[in-house]
């Protein structure tokens, strides 16, 4: 079955083609420090044996948090419990990445909000301040390597800082960062790759759902920028700067992944209300994308993949241990 094929993503050997995207838990109790909730949460997801998990958006600087309940990586106290998350996920043979992020003007807790342009209480970053943020990403990549993460995902989607520089909705600068709206993204990818020294994935919003925003036809330049900087894969999502509700339905973002896949030779990840076995099989059989990301589905049913494997006789006690096997294996029922 294609969903359970082994594959090579960058330099990572993966056991199947199902991953878990970054999903904020908003459970940090201050100072961006992980706690027992985070360790238990990621261990539960890892027990279900996806190929990989992307740890929730993790701030690279104090002004970069989405909220004051989000994780950070820029202080020693923050990094210490992240080691435990890495170790517990690796105990189950699952790859773990960390999504590095700066929320920009979408921060709910920054004392001074920043973005590409001035706007009400938002400060337009100067070239020097932009350079400082790039350096913060570089240091975050260095720390991610030291902590043992298998890959880094750069968050360039959902209306956060990098997306704010990519989008014409929020970037009408007249300097280099306006002439080439991909410049910040390229500098960050290049910087993180230089310090992390392993695979870097980029998450993008391929559709902004606003007339003057980014649409799939505008993605070619962004995809080419990602490729040119040596990224290992592209994770395709949508939205973030939209002012109106998005109409969602099963697999609603897969057409964007399919379109991006036609623009690149890089592996592509697709996501978006995918909940059924037949949906996953169809997406992979049609080569709409190379990896399927299951978010809320695996929050509700973290052992979904194991039950699916068991139904086809692919699950063994040797692979998951006696206790979990007893609970999942149907014994011919």
TrEMBL record:
SUPFAM superfamilies hit by this protein: FMN-linked oxidoreductases
Pfam assignment, any one: Oxidored_FMN
Cofactor(s) essential for the protein: FMN
Keyword NADP among UniProt keywords: yes
Residue ranges annotated for the NADH:flavin oxidoreductase/NADH oxidase N-terminal domain, each copy included: 9-305
PANTHER family: NADPH DEHYDROGENASE C23G7.10C-RELATED
Name of this protein: NADPH2 dehydrogenase
Species this protein is from: Longicatena caecimuris
């Amino acid at each position: 079955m294609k969903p359970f094929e082994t594959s090579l993503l960058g330099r990572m050997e993966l056991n199947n083609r199902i991953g878990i995207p970054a999903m904020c838990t908003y459970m940090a109790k201050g100072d961006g420090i992980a706690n027992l909730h985070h360790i238990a949460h990621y261990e539960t997801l890892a027990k279900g044996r996806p190929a990989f998990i992307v740890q929730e958006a993790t701030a690279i600087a104090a002004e970069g948090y989405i909220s004051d309940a989000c994780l950070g990586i820029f202080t020693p106290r923050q990094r210490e419990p992240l080691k435990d998350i890495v170790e517990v996920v690796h105990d189950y043979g699952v790859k773990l990445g960390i999504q590095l992020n700066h929320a920009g003007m979408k921060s709910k807790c920054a004392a001074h909000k920043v973005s590409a342009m001035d706007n009400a209480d938002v400060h337009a970053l100067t070239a020097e301040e932009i350079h400082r943020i790039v350096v913060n990403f570089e240091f975050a990549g260095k720390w991610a390597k030291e902590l043992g993460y298998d890959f880094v995902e750069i968050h360039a989607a959902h209306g956060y800082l990098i997306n704010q520089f990519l989008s014409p909705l929020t970037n009408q600068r007249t300097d280099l960062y306006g002439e080439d709206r991909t410049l910040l993204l390229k500098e960050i990818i290049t910087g993180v790759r230089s310090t992390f020294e392993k695979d870097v994935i980029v998450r993008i919003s391929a559709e902004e759902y606003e007339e003057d925003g980014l649409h799939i036809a505008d993605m070619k330049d962004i995809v080419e920028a990602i490729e040119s900087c040596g990224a290992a894969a592209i994770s395709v999502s949508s939205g973030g700067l939209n002012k109106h509700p998005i109409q969602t339905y099963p697999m609603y973002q897969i057409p964007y992944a399919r379109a991006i896949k036609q623009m690149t030779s890089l592996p592509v990840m697709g996501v978006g209300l995918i909940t059924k076995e037949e949906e996953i099989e169809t997406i992979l059989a049609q080569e709409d994308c190379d990896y399927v990301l299951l978010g809320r589905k695996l929050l509700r049913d973290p052992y979904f993949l194991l039950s699916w494997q068991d139904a086809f006789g692919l699950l063994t006690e040797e692979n998951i241990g006696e206790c979990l096997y007893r609970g999942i294996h149907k014994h011919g029922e």
